[in-house]
Amino acid sequence: MLRKGTESKPQGFTWRASINNLEVEGPPSAGAFQERPSRPTMFRQFYERRDLPIALVHGSEGNSIAWKVEIEKLDYHHYLPLFFDGLCETTHPYEFFARQGIHDMLEHGGPKILPVIPQLIIPIKNALNTRNHQVMCNTLKVLQHLVMSGDKVGEALVPYFRQILTVFNIFKNVKINRGDGIDYSQGKREIIGDLIQETLEMFERYGGEGAFLNIKYMVPTYESCMIK
Question: In this structure, what are the phi and psi dihedrals at residue 25, rounded to the nearest 5 degrees?
Fold first, then answer.
């Protein structure tokens, strides 16, 4: 039996909560913003087996990737989804290789990107669902590059908005860096709410006629950037 003065606070909407001058315990956190652990990625397994045609190059202006084959000759159906799977990584060198590798492939992929879109949705969804600040920022920047990487790519993403925009709706109004320490996130384009707004606007601009309605269905507070 608890001693007087140490009793736990009563939960709301119970008979004890109706007692005058009694402090009531608030509802538990829903955990919508809580970071979620990710599973081991196939990308890491391929890298550790040395099955990826990449190597790390240290330069005076930072690290870069050296491709062992011409990027244009890669099998995009195999490698692009594999690199997207690596978006969940947060440690070096896996995070760097996955992120930079995607940008390199999108830069040189051209018409090879569009047919692979259906294979990219699950890795994109998995990365966003981690709720990890670094992972989400990387994924949002990748999505912006993806939309502009080839003809009709933006339109091809529209049917998958219901799978990837749920997390957008949750974090749309997050305007601060959720990490610790001094906030330099704005200069680094790491404010999640701003990146989400930018990405939604690009989805609308490149997604064709039905893009806005599909965005609005999943993110009700979104306002069209095409109507001024």
Answer: -70, 135
Six token digits for residue 50 = 């040395």
Which residue do the tokens 């670094």 mark? 134
pTM strictly above 0.70: yes
- Tens of pLDDT, residue by residue over 60-97, are 777 788 999 999 999 999 999 999 999 999 998 999 99
DSSP 162-173: HHHSHHHHHHTT
Query: What's the rounded Cα separation, in Å, for the pair 57 and 216?
Result: 43
User: Are 78 and 42 spatial neighbours (Cβ–Cβ below 8 Å)?
Assistant: no
Question: Rounded distance, CA 76 to CA 65, Å?
Answer: 17
Distance CA 62, CA 57 (A): 9
**Other C-beta atoms lying within 10 Å of the C-beta of residue 130:** 20
pLDDT in tens, 101-133: 999 999 999 999 999 999 999 999 999 999 899
